[in-house]
Please model this.
Amino acid sequence: MHVVTVITQKGGSGKTTLALSLAVAALDAGQNVVIVDVDSQATASVWGDRRGHQPPHVIATHAARLPQVLEAAEEAGVELVIIDTPPRAEQAALAAARVSELVLIPCRAKFFDLEAVAATLELIRSTGRRPVAAVLNAVSPRGTRQAEATAVLEQLGIPVCPTAFGNREAFSDATIRGQAALDYEPAGKAAAEIRLVYQFMNQFMNHLVVSSTSGGVHV
Model:
């Protein structure tokens, strides 16, 4: 079973959107996936309530119970767990990072968001050598901000997904309906971005497995 945690210490970075989108992409690819929500704001859990009985299911829990929740998920045959964490709640983020195979940092291509990544990275590093990658969110299709933000993140030593989530209404419109953009507009641009980010996540994890004997990609 793979465990991926989405962490950022800044609100409004698209953390829950990324977690939900990747979970729906995994489901679409045939994986048995669940979302674990340790965010007290319970945004993912509310999304799950709107979704009803349709998978992927959301499990709301406290960070202290993550080991028990993950053990139960593995026993139930879950292949992928995506953990949604709260911003500005270090203990919950630390607990989630410690049980993760990969940590994803969502980030907008703006100065204050990029500045906050350093604090997030420091938090993740405090858990030991941890595989991490960044995903840019709400990026304008015009201009050079994506390239500039990628350069800043890479200077911090963080691999960056080459596909960013665009600033698209499909992401928010889908969430209101208990969907991801992938099932709201399957042929839309947002759905295509989700599939590519999901592909990047899988390739990144496969690379970690292959390179584990030499230490993998860590921060």
The chain has one domain: 2-194.
